[in-house]
Design brief:
Length: 289
């Protein structure tokens, strides 16, 4: 009998896209079966803090808070390369020093970087789908849009600041991408199962990106995404692409820089090294020698 692994990911187009090769049976494991659940990213960050899932999508900025219980996976990641979440406001409005802002969650990467850049802002948290409406209604002075919301928003709104620009100001001179979405795996899983999990999830992302047109069409036909085909293509080009398959050294350096920034600004009690928290996939090769 196969061991069941619980996998939690967001309902956003990039996460669904990267997981669905498993759901559609395009790839499977001889020893594991996967049971997936979709939820918004802040709910997933909180679930990871509670250790609710074997594998869980998280914001990269949440990882130092769960590093004792979860390893960091290389696969199914999302980075910004000159783009990312957007701080928006009504057109023509000048934001005061202590403006009220809606963020998508306490442990998201955009929240971490925003709070460092705007320490006097009054923060409230909302589901990311409700942030644009909160700004338009005047409930808040500004809000940070994430996921598909960055592709299109009301012409009554304008961008005050790109989170990418904040990242560039904080990261230093080295050209590093903005770490956004990650996957974490429970450390209590046997190492052979952990390696198999990462291997299958990596293959799923690779197959998805290789067959992007076919898989995108299937997602649209089954109403599994919130956007139309043109927006889906644009969004996947941003957040679910060849660089999402498995993190390279530059991406891992970017993750470490994010962790350093969080530590330096008092958001983490200790400084975490991403390289030391990966699944030791070389174990499988040594075991089979």
């Amino acid at each position: 009998m196969k061991k069941r692994i619980s996998v939690a990911h967001s309902p956003d187009a990039d996460d669904i896209f990267m997981y669905m090769a498993i759901k559609f049976g395009w790839i499977n494991s001889k020893i594991l079966e996967f049971k997936n659940k979709a939820d918004d990213i802040q709910t997933l960050n909180e679930a990871a803090l509670k250790g609710e899932y074997d594998v869980c999508a998280i914001s990269f900025s949440a990882y130092p808070l769960i590093a004792d219980d979860y390893a960091l996976l290389r696969c199914a990641v999302s980075f910004g390369e000159g783009y990312g979440p957007k701080l928006i406001k009504k057109k023509g409005v000048n934001l005061k020093r202590n403006f009220k802002v809606a963020l998508s969650g306490k442990h998201t990467t955009n929240a971490l970087l925003f709070k460092i850049a705007y320490p006097n802002a009054k923060v409230i948290y909302k589901n990311f789908l409700d942030i644009e409406k909160a700004v338009l209604s005047g409930e808040v002075d500004a809000g940070v849009l994430i996921h598909e919301s960055i592709l299109e928003f009301s012409d009554k709104l304008e961008v005050e600041k790109e989170i990418w620009d904040i990242w560039c100001e904080l990261r230093g001179d080295e050209n590093l991408p903005l770490p956004l979405g990650a996957m974490a795996l429970r450390r209590s899983l046997p190492l052979t199962d952990a390696i198999e999990c990462e291997k299958i999830l990596t293959k799923a992302v690779k197959i998805a990106t290789t067959h992007k047109n076919l898989l995108s069409k299937m997602l649209i036909e089954r109403n599994l995404v919130r956007v139309d085909d043109k927006k889906l293509e644009k969004y996947l080009n941003l957040y679910a692409n060849d660089s999402s398959v498995s993190m390279d050294k530059t991406q891992l350096k970017a993750v470490n820089r994010l962790f350093e920034i969080g530590y330096e600004n008092g958001f983490y009690p200790t400084k975490i090294d991403a390289f030391l928290n990966l699944i030791p996939i070389e174990y499988e090769e040594f075991r089979n020698c």
